[in-house]
Amino acid sequence: MRNEAENVRVRGSGTQSVYAALRREILSMALEPGSPLDEVRLSERFKMSRTPIREALLRLAAEGLVTTLPNRNTIVATIDFASLPTYFEALTLMYRVTTRGAAGRKDAEIMQRVRARQQEFADAVAARDAFGMIEANREFHVAIAELAGNSYYTTFFARLLDEGRRILRLYYSTFDDRLPRQYVDEHEEIIAAIETGDVERADRLAIDHAAQIVRQIQEYIARDLDRPLAIEIT
């Protein structure tokens, strides 16, 4: 018989595997917003009890990726397009303050991490790996925030990037996952501005980087979702 500690480890492993699989499917949009997540069916799919399923769903709910309805059914969280203007306003601000801050500091170890994340992003772009692009892009900008040295900024920016993962997936879909080399080059330009300590150029690059993402998503919403949305970046 397994002892209590062993049971906890096994359950924890089951929770992690369910969480990781569902999270990937939600972020890749394989599970679309509003899709039902029935515990019984998930239990059958993953061949495990409902306890690790429920714990995995709780973790996903904490990340804002699933929602429990008043009738206690669970669904993939919807995307609130009406909140995008304020979301992008906050996101652009964090691009700017973290990139400016990074350009004003020197830390060879963290800079090495920034370059490593950039290489992962470039590799994912070359492979047309949308999930890999999203993960590497997130880690690239978080590493820049860490270089800037303000832990509050880093935490808030990481949260914004996590909340925007599905929006970013929509953004990449506008290119059929063939992301132009331009976006890899933009990251390289940001790195160069940081390494030379050019704060003003880093700021301008951050503004431009955010603006083209906003513009592309705005066009996607207006064209494919028939939901025009005015988003202005100043």
Please provide a written account of the structure.
The structure is a single chain. By secondary structure, the chain is mostly helical. The protein has two domains: 4-76, Arc Repressor Mutant, subunit A (Orthogonal Bundle), CATH 1.10.10.10; 81-224, Four Helix Bundle (Hemerythrin (Met), subunit A) (Up-down Bundle). It has ten helices and two strands. The protein has helices at 4-27, 39-46, 50-62, 84-103, 108-127, 130-148, 151-163, 165-173, 181-195, 199-224; strands at 66-68, 74-76. It has a two-stranded antiparallel ribbon with strand order 1-2. Strand 1 and strand 2 form a beta hairpin. Helix 5 packs antiparallel against helix 9 (181-195). The model is unreliable at 4-10 and 227-234 (pLDDT under 50). Keywords: DNA-binding, Transcription, Transcription regulation. Residues 12-79 form the HTH gntR-type domain. InterPro entries: GntR_C, TF_FadR/GntR_C, Tscrpt_reg_HTH_GntR, WH-like_DNA-bd_sf, WH_DNA-bd_sf.
